[in-house]
Backbone:
């Protein structure tokens, strides 16, 4: 193979037979991988063909932490799934945003990004970066090739119906679209391989880096093509398969990213113009380079396209009887809203998740979450957990309003009440119910008792312990960290759910001059957790005192305060679902990248914890404590919006051009 040369041998994930898989890299052009199993064998029966498609599914992005060696325990290092291991050095993407400040000093967020160690060379061995391009270390290219192999060979399977073949192809097209969209959001324009490359077509294949517009257009084509092949829903026993809803929903996500200022503006996000180097000279026109990270101009119609795509999704859902709906609580207590909201992003076949990934892991305990974010000790005997990866910031906690919709800032409570409080009188009471399911909060119920988020408490641990160094730790996808809620709960990851599409629609309505319609959509998300409708007065209160970024090269018509509230709502609703990073990037939010991140310290100043009776405890709540600033806070460069391409790939000379600044 002349291009994308690696030495990785792939495993056919979840194939329960003895079938081996196709190679990628130096053996990329081979017809068959193994001694006794060939492509002809794989596509000789429905049994093997179905598993080839499942193998492509197994490459889909999952936001959990997934260890890259011998995990789960007892696996001997043999993955039974192919989700990218060790991404962000066993951390999560939210750890690079203002929502989490990791205190795990061996993790990728802390080591690679916080201290400015990230550079293009890191992408040559991209296991600790947020999303790699190198085929031998990331699964995007693997998934694309597997899906195309299925598309190009499934027609010769003798014991499949035409309907089954068409549906399988549609699923494969959506898988390809997800991978290209993931890479677009990290790298901008990328090479587009539109088939599985073989010796018969290698010489005609264009491996050069393509424009942002070409990639977006192709993702839209993939989604539209798949939508024409797939059913709107599947039965419960088929849960996890791609649907027409998945294709149309993914299109909404892609068009939103395209419409946002990162690409859709009057000027490129960076004034630095990358050079065409080495063997790439002559394969790429210098005049085409900006198009690889910029759409060339601002076009308001791109926001209209988002509105149209969302409305098409909702209309199709209506025609099919609205099977995708926001899960609603049957009660009105905070606990009712909390338990209901937990179902929305974690339960299988729940009527809200549109694309589910991470299904290869039988339970949540099989993820690396149990080590990285789990409590230091628990009722199942796990010790030494809580490595400091989930230190939620005060900045995030302050985004959550009171249960009746009013702004609730920690500083305001301290100013009004002083620094002392109790379990019945503290700064975090009576908030948006999602706060308590996203973040471990002082005194909240946990494992049948109250969460001890004070220094030397069972959840906070000692002052030098990293696991909740900010005074908070993540709770989403951890819950009560017991058999019922975590260890034996079937794993499921929401790659895309209905709430995101509703918020996407709200954002696009605002940017097309319809703030009333945007608020109507926003209220759907608010109301289902008991928050009241957003009024002009509440909006003004929530966004008071903020300075909004200016976009002089975009003719934006959206209300600035409402835009910010929608982004805040996306953070609250989609925490830990790989949303905030992309929102910061696509809106070019240098101000968020550079902001001071804060935590707090809570100490017992009076009372005892004897017999787990905390009724007489009085706490000292510190003033906000500034976290150590990240490198980009004082050395900001817009190059951070997109990742670097690995120099080793650029040096192969197949037409790859580096991103600005790297």
Residues:
């Amino acid at each position: 193979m002349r291009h994308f040369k690696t030495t990785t041998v792939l495993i056919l994930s979840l194939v329960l037979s003895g079938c081996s898989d196709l190679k990628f890299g130096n053996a990329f052009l081979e017809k068959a991988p193994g001694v006794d199993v060939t492509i002809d064998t794989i596509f000789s029966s429905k049994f093997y063909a179905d598993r080839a498609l499942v193998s492509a599914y197994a490459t889909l992005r999952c936001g959990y932490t997934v260890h890259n060696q011998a995990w789960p325990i007892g696996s001997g290092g043999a993955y039974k799934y192919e989700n990218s291991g060790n991404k962000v050095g066993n951390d999560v993407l939210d750890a690079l945003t203002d929502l989490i400040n990791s205190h795990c000093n061996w993790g990728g967020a802390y080591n690679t990004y916080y201290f400015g160690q990230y550079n293009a060379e890191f992408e040559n061995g991209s296991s600790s970066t947020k999303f790699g391009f190198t085929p031998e270390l990331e699964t995007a290219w693997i998934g694309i090739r597997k899906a195309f192999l299925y598309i190009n060979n499934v027609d010769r399977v003798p014991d499949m119906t035409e309907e089954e073949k068409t549906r399988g192809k549609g699923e494969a097209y959506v898988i390809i679209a997800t991978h290209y969209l993931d890479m677009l959001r990290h790298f901008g324009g990328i090479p587009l391989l539109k088939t599985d490359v073989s010796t018969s077509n290698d010489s005609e294949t264009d491996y050069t880096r393509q424009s942002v517009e070409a990639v977006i257009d192709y993702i839209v084509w993939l989604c539209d093509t798949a939508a024409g092949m797939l059913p709107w829903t599947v039965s419960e026993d088929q849960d996890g398969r791609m649907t027409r809803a998945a294709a149309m929903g993914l299109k909404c996500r892609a068009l939103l990213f395209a419409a946002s200022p990162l690409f859709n503006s009057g000027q490129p996000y960076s004034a630095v113009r990358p050079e065409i180097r080495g063997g790439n000279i002559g394969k790429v026109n210098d005049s085409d380079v900006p198009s690889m990270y910029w759409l060339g101009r601002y076009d308001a119609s791109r926001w209209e396209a988002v509105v149209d795509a969302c409305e098409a999704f909702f209309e199709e859902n209506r025609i099919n009887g609205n099977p995708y709906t926001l899960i609603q609580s049957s009660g009105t207590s905070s606990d009712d809203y909390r338990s209901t909201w937990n179902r929305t992003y974690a339960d299988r076949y729940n009527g809200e998740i549109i694309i589910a990934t991470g299904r290869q892991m039988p339970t949540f305990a099989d993820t690396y979450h149990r080590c990285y974010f789990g409590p230091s000790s628990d009722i199942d005997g796990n010790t030494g957990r809580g490595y400091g990866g989930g230190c939620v910031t005060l900045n995030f906690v302050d985004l959550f309003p009171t249960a009746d919709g009013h702004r609730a800032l920690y500083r305001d409570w301290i100013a009004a009440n002083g620094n002392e409080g109790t379990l019945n009188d503290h700064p975090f009471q009576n908030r948006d119910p999602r706060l308590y399911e996203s973040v471990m909060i002082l005194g909240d119920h946990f494992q049948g008792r109250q969460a001890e988020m004070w220094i030397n408490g069972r959840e906070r641990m000692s002052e030098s312990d990293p696991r909740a160094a900010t005074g908070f730790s993540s709770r989403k996808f951890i819950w009560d960290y017991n058999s019922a809620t975590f260890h034996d709960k079937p794993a499921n990851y929401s790659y895309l759910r209905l709430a995101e599409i509703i918020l996407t629609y709200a954002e696009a309505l605002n940017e097309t001059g319809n703030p009333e319609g945007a608020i109507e959509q926003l209220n759907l998300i608010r109301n289902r957790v008991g928050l009241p409708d957003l009024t002009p007065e509440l909006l003004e209160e929530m966004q008071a005192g903020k300075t909004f970024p200016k976009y002089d090269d975009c003719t934006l018509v959206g209300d600035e305060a409402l835009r910010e509230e929608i982004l805040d709502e996306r953070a609250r609703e989609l925490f830990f679902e790989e949303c905030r990073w992309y929102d910061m990037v696509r809106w070019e939010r240098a101000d968020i990248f550079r902001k001071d991140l804060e935590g707090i310290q809570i100490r017992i100043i009076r009372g005892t914890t004897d017999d787990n009776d905390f009724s007489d405890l009085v706490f000292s709540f510190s003033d906000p404590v500034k976290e150590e600033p990240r490198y980009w806070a004082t050395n900001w460069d817009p190059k951070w919006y997109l990742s670097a391409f690995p120099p080793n790939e650029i040096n192969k000379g197949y037409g790859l051009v580096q991103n600005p600044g790297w």
In short: The chain is about 35% helix and 5% strand. The first strand starts at residue 353 and ends at 357.
